Model the fold of this input.
Amino acid sequence: MTPPPPTALASAPTATPELDITLTKTQTKVKKSGGGCGCTSKSDTAPAISESMQARIEKHPCYSEEAHHHYARMHVAVAPACNIQCNYCNRKYDCANESRPGVVSELLTPEEAAHKVLVVAGKIPQMTVLGIAGPGDPLANPEKTFRTFELIAEQAPDIKLCLSTNGLMLPDYVDRIKALNVDHVTITLNMVDPAIGEKIYPWVHYRRKRYRGIEGVKILHERQMEGLEALQEADILCKVNSVLIPGVNDEHLPEVNAAIRERGAFLHNIMPLISAPEHGTYFGLNGQRGPNPKELKAVQDKCAGNMKLMRHCRQCRADAVGLLGEDRSQEFTKEKFMEMSADYSLETRQAVHIGIEQNRAAVAEKKQAAATGTHAVADSPKVLVAVATKGGGLVNQHFGHAREFMIYEVDATEAKFIGHRKVADYCQGGYGEEAALEGIISTVADCKAVLAAKVGPCPQKELQKAGLTVVEAYDVIETVARHFYDEHVLTA
Ligand code: CLF
Ligand code: SF4
Done:
């Protein structure tokens, strides 16, 4: 049986959830429990962020987990060449550092890229960040990369510029990066021990010479450390991406975490290796598997507490457009965007952002009300819930339309986002597919509940058969999670 919705339904969802939240008053039921729990996951108690730092990240969907519910990013694929070889990359595909291998990007010139940014900035005013992340390495293509940044800085000054690199050439360009006001740089750094790096990088091309094996890895390692220090010196925010490769660097990543923390990195993003034979990568062809969600979480938990940890990465394509987790790149193919007018307007964008911030404040208030404080329950059990959302920090998506579920770990003191899981589209032309449903259920089988705006009768029945509670609601995620927890876990 479906339990009644924990909150009254607010106004119906619209295409722009940011502008359409009618917040409802919710009731939180408190029940004391002395129950213990075996879960020992460390919470992300990273050092508090200063107000000025908060201002630098508050509209960046990758640097702020909270912002990623509200603001979008886009990438432009202007950088085809690369100067190293990673065993998880096949050059036919997008850079695996910042993308999901599988689809080749359309390469753009800096001028085409700038036009695309102005078009998207007009059509998706919540797009606040322009990243260059491939399909090769942006700093192996410095002129194209920096020319693109220059053009965008001139024509769209409110858009944050973001760069992702393997770090090999970073020390040479930190001054230029600073001069262009690029405030966010990501280095993909998978090891601090060249012996481990040797299993990941077969060669490095540096200053017109190719170095194979450990010789090349040592150069890469030294340059990455130098680059990190130079970014710290220049006060540029740095995120480190590490690809978790089971049996290669899984046990080593806490050491990487310590090394980057010492050198002032702001955020650590530990992401799973994506590996399949059809990608044609060395790892894919040689049976190297990626981690499962449990293994990924275990390593993330080991590193949590020392510094801010990113758990909401979507391993985007080098031409991604939209909120993290949604892919609107097909709306802006070269053929299409070259025909569109660049209707960027700073005033319009600012007005939209004011609306988003008002909405965000209202969501934060509800989130706060759903949080701890009211619940003095020590060692309450932690449970996972799967959330269908299309943004805005809300449970606001139909179960059948979800392409991914956001996973929250809930106990009596907090509802903490811990990751997302992709699933096949269940609704295909209005008909549920049995196989897809089975896949979805097995993907969220370790969760206690599914929270969605609506769940059809058939999936509802199957979810309940699999032991999951179905909660239908349209409200702030933490509020719905709190109600579910209080009513179905604390009282159980
Ligand atoms: Fe792009 Fe990367 Fe900038 Fe973000 S992505 S260049 S920091 S604007 Fe973000 Fe995408 Fe993960 Fe990258 S979700 S792959 S972390
Ligand atoms: Fe591929 Fe990126 Fe590695 Fe270069 S840095 S080999 S493009 S994954």
The chain has two domains: 7-38+376-488, 51-337.
